[in-house]
Design brief:
Length: about 180
Amino acid sequence: MRAFDIQGDEVTFTPEFLAVPEFNAIWSADKSKSKGKAIRELSFIVFMYDERAHNPYIGMSEDLREDVLSSDLLDGKDYRKDEKIVAGIKKLKQLLETTSTRLLVAAQVAADKLAGWFNKVDFDLVDDHGKQRYSASELARNLKDVGNIVKSLKELEKQVRKEQADDGTARGGAEIGMFELVS
């Protein structure tokens, strides 16, 4: 589902996007003619969590992206206090989730746990029987496999991006613009 278009210097949200109750609640809550607050809040949600190519903030880490977007779009206010925005975030994550994205997130969590294991390696630690808890050969074997893990993660990330841009259509059959395709 494509969320927005840029027409001139204005962001406009697609009717399909605004038909989703959580996004419509944000839109409807802004009683102003310009809908400036709603546009900023919906833009925050989309730019925070939609990782497709049209997102200019996506290269930032999630924490930095949240700070910058909060400053750029929400005047630095703490968006978490607004239940409509929290509901919108939850809905967008649901709409963007696929089997591939779930697998990617799970693989990234597992890789982080593996990194934690490497951080815990201490050759001076011994078990209850006085045997060394970590061996150099075990560490070497695991280090050898890390390159393959990183390569596999990158390939899975690439597959997820391709899935999002597959055949010029998004899930639900919506068209993806030529500037939204991921290479």
